[in-house]
Design goal:
Strand content: 5-15%
Structural class: mainly alpha
Number of strands: 4
Helix content: 55-70%
Number of helices: 9
Length: 157
Amino acid sequence: SKKDGDINYMDFLRFVDPPYPFLKQIDALSPYESDLRRYFEQVTNSHINERHESCILSEEDFIQSIIMLNAVNVQEDDIYDLYRHIDDKNNKKVPLQRIYHFLYSAAIKHIRDAFLSFRKTSMNPWGQFKIADIERTGYVTKGAFKECIRSIGIKGL
């Protein structure tokens, strides 16, 4: 059973290891990071140097901001799917900071790259976590989490 301090590895994996179509969309949006940040900040009335913790981006504002780019080769339905993947609680409102982490975080990109490398040489990295989750709760201890991360080849997390 889940104990205080246990880590929900399913949420972690969903965030750092999204399905391939979402990775393609992230890559397609990558060259437009500064434009997207500007659009997102305009619709949330935030400023570039704020931490964005209290800024919320609605599903509609997310979609419209990406559509405003015009240059991105991503279908509107795919943009909705991407937002819904980021919006794991299905609130139709996501903290701007979460969106930035999902799309642009160097640390998250590092983890995604490690997962891709692990897949090429071994098995599915999710398997490491499922083995550690003996009770099948979706949670593992911090120690087990760190061991799973190390076994995938990620250091310094």
